[in-house]
Amino acid sequence: MRSRPTGPGSLAADLVSAFKLRIGVVITASAMGGIAISPGPLPEAHRTALLALAVFLASAASGAFNQLWERGLDARMRRTAHRPFVAGRLRAGPSWYLSILALLIAGGGLAAAAANPWAAGYTLAGALTYALVYTVWLKPRTWLNIVVGGLAGSFAVLAGAAAVDPGLAPEPVLLAFVLFLWTPPHFWALAMATKDDYARCGVPMLPVVMGDAVSAKIVFAHALALSAIALLPALFSMGAVYLLAAATGGAWFSWKCWILVREPTKRNAIRAFLASLSQLSLLLAGAVLDRMLSELG
């Protein structure tokens, strides 16, 4: 699986990149947000930890598949030209695909054991949506690719929620919808900053198809919608901590997107992209902290 010797630090960095573990952390945090925001008795700590690991493994499997499948495309883009499969530091081959399949099965099986078949189904649905529906089918064909790809994060929320109650209360359903709306503007902002790469490679990302000015307005509209919907769980069981986190993150993301509308530059696109990460971090942390405080109270 390795093409040439590298130091332990270099190999670790390559594996983090190949499995897209940073995205895996976000997906796992979304599952934990799904648990926290769901009314009902929380799963035991060890079951929660095992479900988190299951979601992380499934996300890592889909991330590695994405990098394997797209290594030809990555080689033609400046932003991705140094990824390990492209640069030859990791050798693509059948052993990788078998390892990815094993990792995916392990993630699904662990989710079933830690929670229930519903949680396992949502975990696998998220990974397969990203790997097959987004990467293989939609990304080369339509600018709507990341809209459907956003379901990966939504399924993670539902996986966490199903561990509390497979019936799914309104709060996790709303949070899953927020994740669905969050992923496109998050990625489109980055795509605006790297539009030349996508245009040169013929990938129909939104900024390539519709231009920066229109894309910025669509990003802003998504930011407003998801920020408003993120407040709605406070009408049900979530408290003031969640509401403050959701309002603060939503206002910050929306403001940065409004700046992008006024001046759709690469610099402002990156700032909107970073603001989207801040918004999601605040939202999920607010959900977890709010639930922790309610359990202590």
List keywords for this structure.
297 residues; mainly alpha; Tetracycline Repressor, domain 2; Four Helix Bundle (Hemerythrin (Met), subunit A); 2 domains; 15 helices; 78% helix; 0% strand
List the SSEs and their pairings.
Layout (H helix, E strand, L loop, with lengths): L7 H11 L2 H17 L7 H25 L1 H5 L8 H4 L6 H21 L2 H22 L6 H5 L1 H14 L5 H24 L1 H7 L4 H5 L1 H18 L10 H23 L3 H31 L1
Helix pairs in contact: 2-3, 2-9, 2-10, 2-15, 3-6, 3-7, 3-9, 6-7, 7-9, 9-10, 10-13, 10-15, 13-14, 14-15
Distance between the termini: 51 Å
The CATH architecture of the largest domain is Orthogonal Bundle
Tell me the Rg in angstroms.
19 Å
Question: How many strands in all?
Answer: 0
And the CATH topology of the largest domain? Tetracycline Repressor, domain 2
Order of helices and strands: HHHHHHHHHHHHHHH
List the domain count as a whole number. Answer: 2
Describe, in short, the structure shown.
The chain is an all-alpha fold. It is built from 15 helices and no strands.
Question: What does this entry look like structurally?
Answer:
Helix 2 (21-37) packs antiparallel against helix 10, helix 2 packs parallel to helix 15 and helix 14 (240-262) packs antiparallel against helix 15. The chain folds into two domains: 1-166, Orthogonal Bundle (Tetracycline Repressor, domain 2), CATH 1.10.357.140; 169-297, Four Helix Bundle (Hemerythrin (Met), subunit A) (Up-down Bundle), CATH 1.20.120. It is 78% helix and 0% strand. It is mainly alpha-helical and 297 residues long. It contains 15 helices and no strands. 50% of the residues are buried.
